Amino acid sequence: MTQTRLARSTQKLKTLMKDYYQELDEASRSHSRKVAWCTSAGPVEILTAMGFAVYFPENHGALLGARRLATPLIGKANAQGYSPDICSYLTSDIGAYLGNETALGAAYGVRGIPKPDVLVYNTSQCREVQDWFSFYAREFKVPSLGVFSPWKITELSRANIADVAGQLKDLAVQLSRVSGSPLDPERLKETVRLSSQASNLWKHFLETAKRKPSPITFFDATIHMAPIVVMRGGQRACDYYRDLVKETEDLIVSGAPAVAGERLRFYWEGMPNWGKLRFFSDLFENLKACVVASTYCLSWVFEELDCDNPFESLAQANLRVFINRDERYKEDYLAGITRDYQIDAILFHEAKTCPYNTNTRFGLPQRLQAERSIASAVLYGDLCDLRCFSEEQSRTVVEALAEQIMAGRRV
Ligand code: SF4
């Protein structure tokens, strides 16, 4: 792993995340602020503008996966009728709740998850978030409010944008009944402005990987992405990413590549395998291969955000997210990224419990090969459930792909 190369930011990140979770804990225990739970593609800017402390159960799921706590917890949710085939963020998070466990205590020194006053989701990523939050709505007896986005769009129409923007406006009215005061339009503008700024800085950080050799890897990005997920709309995320960009640019100036002797450049498509990041990082480093970009990390680049047009731009940002697009768009997008980042091959992660963010099941890798000469391989696994993963099988796949590319260069 390469965290030590971004040591200043890594240290800041620990403090930032600890402060974030301790503030949530304080809000929950003292009732000084209302707590909203939000999905990763949910309207955090609106919630922040309305003064809610915002918690993201998906971040908890990722933490359970990264700390390899998820697999036994999944069984607890399975025992309550939540299938082993559904999202393992959902089952590990609900399993942790049922077992009165959390990864937040050891990681951030808080006693538990913050109690919600309201739950807010957006279905642009998948429909399972609705069922996930329905569980907690029953447990905590709080409202669960949803934005229902049109799925798998080819071209975004005015009607699509008006539909979601209208839902977001209605949502703000419903939320005002929980918060006790209406949404202040000026505060919303400000949170959208800050969200846009953080997104642009995050994009800048990710795009440093267009350099050859790259100063960063996908694995660095998975570590440093937490603020763009949980702190969008606040000043702290902007300050953090400004410093991260500076530290990354210092690495470029000092000529320190992320992978010594970089000879292969890969793209990671699909969800991370949180419990196996170290395994993959070591595997690629040994092959002098750098995973320079990923759909997952790039999904938090929201170029559409516009503080002068907050609701419509939030709707657009939400609808244009990669996971919500059709196969044709995905082919074009992946072909463009492969060119821009000088990528040798795409690694598709077929995540057993996330069909929504898995793009191997309808012939997309084969079409990229046949129509655009883009090589790829499929890795089988999961985001949290380690029972779906084999190190040996994955090593064989990656080594064979690397050998195939190197052999092609020799002829
Ligand atoms: S998109 Fe996948 S990982 Fe995310 S909540 Fe839905 S099923 Fe889970």
TL;DR?
It contains 18 helices and eight strands. It has 411 residues and is α/β, with parallel strands linked by helices. Helix 7 links the parallel strand 3 and strand 4.
Description:
This protein is α/β, with parallel strands linked by helices and 411 residues long. It is built from 18 helices and 8 strands. The chain has helices at 7-30, 44-49, 57-66, 70-79, 88-98, 104-108, 128-140, 158-179, 185-207, 218-224, 226-230, 235-254, 277-286, 295-298, 310-319, 327-340, 364-372, 391-410; strands at 35-38, 53-55, 118-122, 144-147, 264-269, 289-294, 345-351, 375-381. The strands form 2 sheets. It has a 4-stranded parallel β-sheet with strand order 2-1-3-4, with helices on both faces. Helix 4 packs across helix 5, helix 8 crosses helix 15 (310-319) and helix 16 packs across helix 17. It is globular and about 70 Å long. Iron/sulfur cluster binds at residues 87, 89, 125-126, 128-129, 271, 354, 356-357, 383.
Structural class computed from helices and strand pairing: alpha/beta
* Weakly predicted, low-confidence segments: none
Q: How many DSSP helices?
A: 18
Instruction: Please give the alpha-carbon distance between the first and last residues.
Output: 33 Å
* Main sheet overview: 4 strands, parallel
The ligands bound in this entry are:
iron/sulfur cluster
Indicate the radius of gyration in whole angstroms: 21 Å
- How do the strands line up in the largest sheet? 2-1-3-4
Q: Assess the beta-strand content as a share of residues.
A: 5-15%
Average pLDDT over all residues: 96
- CA-based shape: globular
How many strands? 8
Measured as a percent range, the helix fraction is 40-55%
Series of H and E elements: HEHEHHHHEHEHHHHHEHEHHHEHEH
